[in-house]
Amino acid sequence: MLKKLSILLTTAILLSACLPSPPDRSASKTITVYGFSIMKEALEKDIYPAFKAKWKSEHNEDIEFVSSFAGSETVTNQILQGAPADIAILSIERDADRLVQGNAANANWHSLPANGIVNKTPFIILVRAGNPKGIHDFADLGKPGIKIIHPDPASSGGAQWSILAIYGSQLKKSEAESGNKDTVRATNTLKAIWKNVISSPGSAREARTQFELGQGDALITYELEGLMMKQAGAQIEMIVPPATILSEHPAVLIDRNVTDAKRPVVEAFLNYLWSDEAQQAFVKNHFRSATNDSFNDANKEFAQIQQPFTAEYFGGWGKAYPEIIDAIFLKQVQAK
Amino acid sequence: MSNIRHVRGFDLAKPLSIGVMIAIMLPLVLLPLASIFIFGTSNGLDNFWKALMAPEAIFALKLSIVTSFWATVFNVIFGLFAAYVLSKYNFWGRNAIIVTISLPTAIPTAVAGFALLLLWGPYGLLGRLIEPHGVHIMFTAWAIILANIFVTFPLAFGVIKPVFDTMNQSLEEASATMGATRWQTFWHVTLPGLRGAIVTGALLTFARAIGEFGSTILVSGNLASRTQTAPLYIFAKFNEGQVEAANAIAIVLALFSFVIFSILFFARDWLEVD
Predict the structure, then answer these.
(1) For the whole model, what pTM was predicted?
(2) Nearest residue on chain A to B235, judged by CA atoms?
(3) Span(s) in chain A for CATH 3.40.190.10
């Protein structure tokens, strides 16, 4: 009886003792990167290996990369709560600013090359092959009977870009028609589209997975996601709206977490993101370069956008978040 | 088990009731489980094996097992101790403690996660005090163990306590009158009567901890090959659109719980027979 019990317990303990314990995370030459959901492939396939090789040849030293990917707002909240990131690559400037306000990141991230923006990509609409619902622009998504997958702006930066894309496209259109920015029309379009949303996942990548598994008629997302799906042979079509936003993604150093011993290599990696080599790697992975438009022109898969705009069109993120995401989307569209 | 027949001849009730039972289970439990297996192996066993042998996947499984193991060790020992104290002694506040131990059952696991963050995080009540000394608990394996302990807290206690309550007190009294110390009585008389409950409590705790998700995603940091447990790996792979990779580990976890509950079922008999 007790013997049997002790046999059971000893076996369990022996079994467990054989297992390795998780490695220490504070190893000096490890760079920990927290990224928003769609950064994964470009970093892991090309940027990390290239920088590792470069550092090895210049300093004869091995470095290791560890990373975690989730919605931009989620990543930001994790870092604010103490997640051990050295570098954060975010979807939206608002999150970089939140890290600064939370004393996690350096306030001068804008002084990095290209204003601190590592890459960009326009927002487009993905529909099923053959475009059975006849969707050609954002406004078509508000028609009755269309089922939309749209990430949740509370956790996803991509969701916030999408809202700005819809809203801004209507302002552009009304400006062209009457010379005035019709904010009522833009708000109503947002309301009509949000009524058709059947699921709001935590990140752009999560939204794409749901769409890939057959849910919904349309998905508003980064051009990069559509190009990746096309490359993988997905039965989808990419609809490029006449006017849409270019999302711009900042990279910031998490000052609070970077030890003096590690700082040189972390800073070297951060700066490397703006090197021609890294920018071309981003383009290869369907992002648009933030530093050199000739890299983008070389990539024939990128869509031509008639009227592109950026967050600047709304006066920058400092205005876009409180005036559109918060005052219009959260308070009027989502809350009803 | 009685075999009395209520009707003469062929008893229709037996096959019918078994059939109904399985028919109800089919869409609710059996088919969802089956779909994991069918999908996971639909691209061939080679791909399944490759997904399973990915270093990140193996690490995630190991991390889950280690953290669940230590949470189980703690909760079984504590559950045994608490059950002993609470069934032996009557004191003011006893019922309040019994209720408190059971609370984690009904608390959403995400709440467990951020409760731990609010306590041990860099701005937490205690985290604020230890952080300057370079002690980090959140976003390490310790955080995962703490989260597992919290969510599985009532399980071992809940199994052990009722056995304690119904235990024959006269045996312990006899042992005491024969001159045994408290410890001897506990080791030779009380504990053997609890072995079934201890094994059941341990396996239930372990099984629950290994599947824990809601609290872990908040406190672990979710770093691949560092602080990513098997359920977090499944979630991450699913979100990345790598459904096959997610499925491979899901199959392992499903088989794992199958093994655990089979042990539970058979170990009870094995332990009872002396």
Answers:
(1) 0.81
(2) A206
(3) 30-119+248-298, 121-247+309-334
